[in-house]
Amino acid sequence: MQVIKTISHLKEILDQARASKKSIGFVPTMGALHEGHASLVRQSVLENDITVVSIFLNPTQFNDPKDLERYPRTLVSDCELLEKCGAQIAFAPSVEEVYPETDTRTFSYPPTDTVMEGEKRPGHFNGVCQIVSKLFYITNPDNSYFGEKDYQQIAVIRRMVEDLRFKTRIIPCPVIREENGLAMSSRNTLLTKEEKNIAANIYKVLSESKNTQMSLKETESWVTDKINSIDGLVVEYFNIVNGLTLASIDSWNDTDNIVGCITVYCGKTPIRLIDHIRYK
Ligand code: AMP
Fold first, then answer.
1. Rg for the chain (alpha carbons), in Å?
2. Among 117, 142, 173, where does a domain finish?
3. How do strand 258-266 and strand 233-242 relate by DSSP bridges?
4. Considering only CA atoms, which residue is closest to atom 14 of ligand 1?
5. Is there an atom of ligand 1 within 6 Å of 4 CB?
6. Which CATH number do you get for residue 27?
7. 276 noted as active-site residue
8. Which residues fall within 8 angstroms of residue 161, CB to CB, at 6 or more apart?
9. Which ligand 1 atom sits closest to the C-alpha of 34?
10. What is the pLDDT of residues 228-250, one digit of tens each?
11. How many domains, the chain?
12. Region 25-43: what's the mean pLDDT?
């Protein structure tokens, strides 16, 4: 596997690959890689001739400087994992390489980028669109792999791809979970063992909520109250929404694509965790 640091070098290699009719799969990440990321990379390796994985802790998508500061950085072990997964290229540029000047572009895809994470993390999805669009321009991939772990992010990216006419296909990949159900996340390494056990209740309660015969609004309150009743967990929001547009809905009959998206603060620090559940 090649570790590439500059845009010009990456473009040169990918231009050659394209000239010899090789397909390119792309997996954007912020590093601190785990089995969740590995599943995306393995799928890309199966479906493309060349898999490029970017490892770039993108500052423009962090609305909280403390979150950026404590984000784990593990480039050496990241590259080892990518090599094992069969990736051909790790692209790990510096911040100066990606943003030689401040990126002033703005993106707006309501309601996908204005509700939930969009509302609670102002500027977050703008930063995501800035980096993902730059990486798409650089890599020009046939297929791009995104985890449903960041459910809302996929909805925003799909809108951006339509808007800017990127030719890449967006391939959503299922959430990979710990044995206890906790969605794998780079931020989980910031939790103690005890906090991880507590955090497992998030998915447990979400799963249980599928079996209650309550109305949509009652289900929202039931999940929120039940998680808030657990010591060490505080719900920021739990919204049951249209799974495609992320617009809020009032009844189970409003559409046939429905997901519940949740953000919970866990533990003393506290660490912000996101998850979702599909109802239909
Ligand atoms: P990140 O490094 O957090 O920006 O994540 C990079 C990509 O990996 C995103 O598309 C995430 O949705 C995906 N990802 C992260 N955690 C998981 C997981 N537990 N299961 C599946 N995909 C994941």
1. 19
2. 173
3. antiparallel
4. 147
5. no
6. 3.40.50.620
7. no
8. 136, 168, 170
9. 16
10. 999 999 999 999 999 999 999 99
11. 2
12. 98
